[in-house]
Amino acid sequence: MVLAPFDVKLSDYDVVQPDLLVSCSQRLGARFHDGAPDLAVEILSPSSLRHDRIRKLNLYAKAGLAEYWLVTPYPLMIEVFSNHEGIFHACGGFGEDQVLHSPRFPELSLDLAAIYAELPPNPDPEAVRESPPVYASSLPNR
Fold first, then answer.
1. Among 67, 110, 114, 141, who pairs with 104 as Cys (CB 3.0-4.6 Å)?
2. Which residues pair with 106 in a beta bridge?
3. Cis ω before 5 (30° cut-off from 0)
4. In this structure, what CATH number is given to the domain that contains residue 77?
């Protein structure tokens, strides 16, 4: 298992960085993975949603990635896709109160309630994340 950032070279022109990859092959090198790993996991964010759901999904399918997970952190949901002849098929969506079973690794099961319990609180998208600069208090009122 390898965590990002770590390159996966799918072709001479297509290099991706999954958030997590699992490889059971000899193609895992010190600097990059040559070809599709056995499992790639992407944690979705508003900025990566389209890229992970469309571009990477199609690249991974074409390259022969066996299993692809898309993780939505809030609310917790994991979508599992299995590759059959270059096309991903949805195996299911798993929520925070379920146990995920991997089609590629039958011995792998994840209790999502335990994972959900360890997540930080859901960030408020309306919350201001910046404080005024220190010098702002020295500016005259206008």
1. 67
2. none
3. yes
4. 3.90.1570.10
Segment 45-64 shows an average pLDDT of: 91
C-alpha pair distances (Å), 28 with each of 10, 24, 33, 34, 103: 12, 8, 4, 7, 22
Q: What are phi and psi of 124, to 5 degrees?
A: -80, 115
* Cα 11 to Cα 22, 36, 40, distances in angstroms: 18, 9, 16
DSSP 140: P
In this predicted model, what pLDDT tens digit does every residue of 113-136 receive, in sequence order? 988 888 777 766 665 555 555 554
8-30 burial string, b = 16+ CB within 10 Å, else e?
bbbeeeeebebbbbbbeeeebee
Q: Domain range for residue 21?
A: 2-138
Full-model pTM: 0.80
How far is residue 50's CA from residue 110's CA, in Å, rounded to a whole number? 26
- In this structure, the number of other CB atoms found within 10 A of the CB of residue 124 comes to 8
* Residue 97: other Cβ atoms inside 10 A: 10
